[in-house]
Every structure is written in C-alpha cells, then in structure tokens.
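In response to a reviewer's request, we include the raw inputs and outputs for one of the modeled complexes. The two entities were modeled together in a single run.
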Amino acid sequence: MDLRYTESEERFRQTLRAWLAAALPQLAPEPAPHDWPARRAWDTDWQRRLFDAGYAGINWPTEYGGRGATLTEQLIYLEETTLARAPYVGVNFVGLLHAGPTLIAEATDEQKHRHLPRILRGEEVWCQGFSEPEAGSDLASLRCRAVRDGDEYVVTGQKIWTSFAQVADYAEMLVRTDPDAPKHKGISWLILPMDAPGIEIRPLRTIVGSTEFSEVFFDGVRVPVDNRVGAENDGWRVTMVTLGFERGTGFISDLVDTNRLLGDLAALARKVRRRSGTAWDDGALRREIGRLQAEMDALWAMTKRNLAQAERRGVPGPAGSVVKLYYADLYQRLTDVAMRVLDRASLSMDDVGDLPSGLFVHERLRSTSFTIAAGSSQIQRNIIAERILGLPKER
Amino acid sequence: MDFELSEDQTALQEGLRQFCAGRFPMEAVRALEGRGGVDRALWAELAEMGVFALRLPEADGGVGLGWADVVLSFEELGRALVPGPLVWTQLAAGLVPGAGLGEVVVGGVERDDPSRLVEYLDSLDVLLVLDDEGVWAADPGAVEAHRLGVPLDPLVPVSRVVGDLPAGEQVSDAAGVAAFRRHGAALVAAQLLGIAEVTTDLAVAFAKDRVQFDRPIGSFQALKHLMADMFTRAEVARGAVYAAGVTLDDPAVGRPERAVAAAKITAAEAALANAKSCIQVHGGMGFTWEVDAHLFLKRAYALEVAFGSSEEQAEVMAAALADAG
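The model returned the following structure tokens for the whole complex.
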C-alpha cells in the first residue's frame, strides 16, 4: 500500500495547477442562477478551454479525443479543479459523464464520430431521458413508446427529472420498442435530437426553488433508426454500461468539495455567536464536526482504495454503491449539524449579517435529493446486499 | 499511488487468517476465559507468527516490516477475537526485553486513568505505565489491586488498582509516549475493523441460512438493508485504518495524529454498530451466551475505550479542523 504520488503524477498536478491559475481568471463572471442559456454558454466556454489545453474527457480514451488519464491522474484532476473552484461538467454532465462513455462503449463508429468530438469541444449538450412518472426506482418498467415506421422510430410518451432539458441538443433516451417482451427485454437506447418537432419541456420547481429539471413530453417525435445505440431491445444492457460509469469515479469532485464545506462549517461554528461564546465552544457540536471530518477522511481513503482496485480490475464494480450510500448520508448529516450550528440564523437562505449561512441552509435542503437521485439509498442497499453480499432477491 | 495491498501484504494477511482459524477457533478463544484470556503456549505461537516482532529489525529477531503490516495483522487478530494484551506487548517490543519474542507478556495503563482499571493484570510479566513524561516499566506483582468478578468482556479480565501505581523504570521519554499512544490507537482501530468485518460475515451467513415465512430471512429488505449498512461501515473504516498504517510509516502523505484519530473513530463506530446489528439479525439466538455474537459486541466496547475513546479522538479531529481554519 502506497499513498505517495509518483514523480510523473506530481508533475501532472503541477502542470494542471499552473494552467488553472492562468485559465480561470479569463472566465467571464458566472451567469445568474436560473438563466439556463447563459449557463450553457458559460459551461461550454469552459469545456472548450479544457479541450484546447488537452484536459477535456480526462477519462476518455485518446482515440476518441480524450486525455486517457490513469485513474490516479483523474483523481488529481478532479481534486485540483475542485480546489481551484474551476467549473465542473455543468449543464453537460450527461454528455460528458453518461452519454459520451456509453457511446464509447456501445455506439457505431459513425455515431461516435458524429457526437464524441462535439461533446468534448463543448459544442453539443446532452440530457437524459430515463425516468418516467411511473418508472422511478423500477426504471425497467418505463412506458415511453418507440414505434418503428420505415427507417424511423416514432416516440410518444413522457420523461421526468430531465436536468437541463431546456438547453440540450440531444437526449440519451430509453424507449419501449417491444411492449410484449419481459420488461428488461423490450427497451432500446436512442440518440434523440431535442430540436425535433413534437417535444414539449415543462420545468419543475425544486425544493430550493430552482428550475434545472423538467418534465419532457414526446408526441410523435421522429428519430432515425440509425440513432439507435446497440441492438433493438438491447437498451437495458446498454443502460447498465452507463450506470456503471455513473458510479465509478463519480464522487471524487463531490468529496473534495464536501471536505472544503466541512472546513467552512468549522469556521462558521467559530463565528456563530451564542449567548456566551460561539457554537464551537459547545463540546457536543464540536466533537460531532470532528467525527464528520473523520468520516470524510475515511471516505477519501476508501476512494483511493477503490481506484487502486479498479485500476487492477478494469471496470468499476458495485463499490460505487458503497460510496454513494455513505456519501449521501454523510452530506445530509453535515448539513443537519450546520442547521444546529446556525440555530435561528438558519431561518434564511440569504446570508444573515456577516455569516456565510445561506449556503448551508440551501445545501441542507438541496441534499435531500442525494439519497433519492441516481438510484435511491434503498436501491443502493439492495445492490450491495445482493451483488456484493450475495443475499437472495426478495422475489 | 497504489493504495492496495502488495503481494507480500496479501500473503501476510492470508497467513495470519489461516493461523487464527487453526489455533484460535471460537471454541479455543472461549476456553481462554478460564485462563484470564492468556495462554502462554498460544502466546508463544503468536510470537512465532511474528505478531509482536513484525516491526523489529531482522538483526533483533524481528521481521523488519512497517506499521501498515502490523495494522493488517491486528485486523486479523480482531477478526478472530484473539484476547490478551496484544497491543501493549506489540508496542513493548524494542522497549521491554523479551516482549517481541513473546517471552514476556506486557500490559499497561495510563497513570492518571480515573477508572483505575487494568486489563489482564494477573497474566502480566511487565506493566507499562504511561504519563506525559514517558513510558515506565513496573512489576505487576508490586501493584496492589483486586480483580473484579464479572468483566464486560469475559475474555478481558479487569483489576482495580488500589493506591498509586508504582513509579517504574523509564523505558521511553515524552516524545516516545505520544508515539506510543498514537500507535496503540491505530492497532486498536485495526482490531475494531476486524470485528466490523467478521460480524458482517456472521450476520450474512446466518441470514442466508435461517428460514422464516418459507424463505431465507436474508431475502427481506429490512434485514438486507441492515447488512448493506454493516458492509458499508466496515469498508469506509477500512479505508481510514489502512491509511493510518500507511501514514504512520510515511508521514509525508498525511498527519499521523489525524489519520489515527479518523481510523479509531470510524472503526469503533463500525465495530459497535455492526456487532449490534449482528445480534439483531440473529434474533433470539443473538441474545444467548451460546451464539458468538455477544462476544464481538463486548470486545468492541472494550476496545472502544482503549487508547482514547471516540469522544477524545473527535476532539483531535476538531483541533485539526481548527488548526486548518
């Protein structure tokens, strides 16, 4: 076991750090929170800068224009960019983290050539059409139909929780192509152009008042059969490839960010006044913050172990479920402690006086999604119990 | 960076696991209750496996390995519930003649411990007393104490010291005692990690086997989720415990005090929570003396308060945060 970075890994870090220091001041000011077209422009501008500097698609193979970095270099990349407060994948998280990797694994050469370079250059933004009102945790029960009509599919149905649909060029779509087959065997994976006629997007308002995700309605939307990835009715397997990517190195940036947030919480506690002293003088609260830091350190160490294991075995395993399950709970507990630290200063999502309090209140509310989105914690526990511990399925 | 066991480390781990399975099956561990937790012949065999001398240079009869390797070996001792003052004797190697070779059994206590309790006192050849000035070796026979009738852990007998502990002969200085405590906490964390793992294994095995409502109880989500959480806690703690071992060997990769505190906190939480869940999964049988589950819970409690409880370690973490801010 060795936690030391090699010379070449340290060089990679120093070069990246120097580039970030030069590149970040050139960015325009961040757009207003709900101005999605401006957000798209800002995020894709950053993506283009990454591309020009050779950092785009850090984990993508070089033959598709990516960096082909080792897992340790990916860890360094995510650590350094997060610490430097560089933008992350932003509105194109689906293209860069889900759809792109799926195309790499499953698409035809023509499909790869058409989309991958544009995703990396920040010219093409993707959203995800997976969940439906009646297909949440039970994703395979999805109903959105695609009926073959010559060399096109005609798509009719509804998707939900589609992040950044307003500004996406394409959707990675799961559709039902065989309603008579068992539910996992009648699904296909389509590249659906979001500018096709027959699409209606209705933004939803989230618990924190934001509007990044939408319901999307499809009414006879025509998609070329050539846009199918993988064989007809083999979309579930193709999807599983995507979900595998989703749980690989996915939480590194979040962990680095959360570690900083925890440091900020400790600083906040030393600033929040009680009738005598500060919140930090409350030993129970102080030790709870200390425990959270112990758990953060443990989770970070575990991530390094997961990377070392993935480096040897190739594909990410169900260990991703362990990280997601623990991280989601830890973040919620962290922000719960923040609410206790703030006491009555928690009553506002705007900062109260000179306290940087609003962020913590916002994060307490926003993080309620962490145990729900991308496979709820209950689903993660089923995965761990059945795929790792080998416990029998319920039915 | 490659934070995965080397081939040698995997061999060390497997070797010790096999040794424990052969020499410390649960019936042998339980039999030690009547011997105060320590059997000299088994102690000598532990020494032969290198448990106490792993860190000593080969010239001194040791194996010349690092803390990461000792951590791995103590994880196995924790899994097997091997009793005795293992951590104290391991740390005494190099300070107390014969400790590394298992010829003397060494225990210890903090001089200002308000509980006045010493574990395994009747089995000890040497008692180490820690205070902020250093580590002191005393004759356990010179300690006036009485043994308590019913210890929390039947394999961890405790005696209460009457009056002052003997001054003893100094074997390490103030800097040495700080390192001693840190190393002790790391090795206890490793044992706790072993308990967190083995209780998960026991619960999972039982849940696959036990049938109620015409199906294995492990198919019920209510229990599945308990066990998924057990596995998750153990894996997270494993990261921290291994990182503590590596950081003790190579302080350039982190701060040893913080790494050890994080390991102790997460491993204690994992061991305690998992031992409780292990009993819950076993149902009524988990409440009996006959099933082993209770022994793991009791050991987890006994180790949680060794070399600094989680409350104390949490203050270490809080201080690290305050320093960083």
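As requested, we also summarize the result in words. Residues 115 and 358 of chain A are 39 Å apart (CA to CA). Chain A touches chain B through 56 residues (CB under 8 Å).
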